C-alpha cells in the first residue's frame, strides 16, 4: 500500500496551491491519485480536494523520482518498497535514522545536493515532516555543529546545507505566513553568529505551532532589535547562537536590548547552554538545544 498520510493541524492546501508549490498541474495530480493511487487527498463536504504538507512533500518526492528516469507506473512499487524497508524486521527505526543521517552528512561533506535530495525524499515518503525534522534534520544540524567545533567541518559545508535547507523550507514559510494570525516572533542569530540553520528549524517548528514568524537571519546587531520590535509588534524575540557572545555583549548590549524592547527574549542553541547564567542575568530566558523542548518552554512562559 502507498505511504499513509496523516492530516496535520497546521493547515490544508487547495489543489491550486499544491500545483504552485510542486510545479505539477491539477490534471496530473488527479491522475496520480485516481489512476496510480499514489496518495489520497482529504475531502471537504463539498467534494473539493485538500492536501496536507506531507502530501506536498510526497509529490515533490515523486517529481524527483520521475526526473531521475523512473516511469510513473513504477513509482508506487518503489515507494511501497521504501516503506517496507523502514518497517521490516531487518533494522530498528533508530538504525534507519542513523543510516539517513550518515547519508546526509556524506552529502554535505561532498557538496552533493542530489544525495541530500534523495535521502530527504526517502524519509519524507515514509514519515511525516515533523518526524523527519525531529529525527533527521535536527540531529544533522547538531552533527554539523559538532564537526565545526572540532575543526572537522568547514563554513562552506554549513553554508551549503543552509542554502539547501532554505530551498526546502522557503515555500512552507511563504504559505504559512500568509495564513498566520498567531503571536508574532522576531527571530535572529546573535551578533557574529552566522549559523542560521538552527534558527530556520526553530522558526519552522514555531510556525507549525501557530506562531507568526519573522526571520531576520544571521549576525543581528542587538541595538536594532528594539526598533524592529516596535515595528512588528512582536510578542517575543528569539535569538540563536552556536558560540556564546563575549562578556561585553552579554552584560551591556544584550541587557540594554532586552530592556528597551519590552518583550520576552529567548536564547536557543549551544550558546544558551554555555552562557546560561550570564544570559539569565541579562534578562534572557535560555531554551537549550532541543527544538521541541525549547519551543514548549517558550510557549509555556508566554502563556503564563
CATH architecture of the largest domain: 3-Layer(aba) Sandwich
The number of domains is 3
Radius of gyration: 21 Å
The CATH homologous superfamily of the largest domain corresponds to: Cobalamin-binding domain
Please summarize the sheet with the most strands.
5 strands, parallel
CATH class of the largest domain, please? Alpha Beta
Structural category is alpha/beta
Which H/E pattern describes the elements?
Answer: EHHEEHHHHHHEHEHEHEHHEH
Q: Let me know the number of strands.
A: 8
**Helix count, DSSP H or I runs of 4 or more residues:** 14
Helical content band: 55-70%
Low-confidence stretches: 1-10
- The CATH topology of the largest domain comes to Rossmann fold
Shape: globular
β-strand amount: 5-15%
pLDDT averaged residue by residue: 84
Short description:
The longest helix is centred in the middle third of the chain and has 25 residues, at 155-179. This protein is 61% helix and 11% strand. It is built from 14 helices and eight strands.
How would you portray this structure in words?
Helix 5 (93-109) crosses helix 7 (129-149). The chain has helices spanning 15-22, 26-34, 53-67, 72-87, 93-109, 113-126, 129-149, 155-179, 197-208, 225-232, 247-261, 270-274, 276-282, 291-303, and strands spanning 13-14, 42-43, 49-51, 184-189, 212-217, 236-240, 265-268, 285-288. The chain starts with 12 loop residues before the first strand and ends with a helix. 38% of the residues are buried. The protein contains 14 helices and eight strands. The longest helix is centred in the middle third of the chain and has 25 residues, at 155-179. It has three domains: 1-88, Multidrug-efflux Transporter Regulator, Chain: A, Domain 2 (Orthogonal Bundle); 91-172, Methyltransferase, Methionine Synthase (B12-binding Domains), Chain A, domain 1 (Orthogonal Bundle), CATH 1.10.1240.10; 180-303, Cobalamin-binding domain (Rossmann fold). The radius of gyration is 21 Å and the shape is globular. The protein is α/β, with parallel strands linked by helices. Helix 9 (197-208) links the parallel strand 4 (184-189) and strand 5 (212-217).
